[in-house]
Design a protein that fits this description.
Layout (H helix, E strand, L loop, with lengths): L1 H20 L1 H13 L2 H24 L4
Helix pairs in contact: 1-2
Length: 65
């Protein structure tokens, strides 16, 4: 459970930094996402999930948890 809380905390930090440091960039990215077809947005989401799983697997191999 502590690993899940750690992961959620890290996600919140990264997301918060994006909004705090570059709010106009976040707005432009959201506008770009609105203009993309739903299939493309879904594909980007799945790529992010796969990338995240690879990072978690790699961290576990390095002994992170």
């Amino acid at each position: 459970m502590s690993t899940v809380l750690l992961a959620l905390g890290l996600v919140m930090i990264v997301e918060g930094l994006a909004y705090a440091l570059a709010p106009s960039l976040v707005e432009r990215m959201l506008e770009m996402l609105r203009s993309l077809p739903e299939a493309a947005v879904r594909q980007v989401g799945m790529l992010c999930v796969v990338g995240g799983l690879i990072f978690v697997w790699f961290a576990s191999r390095l002994g992170a948890f």
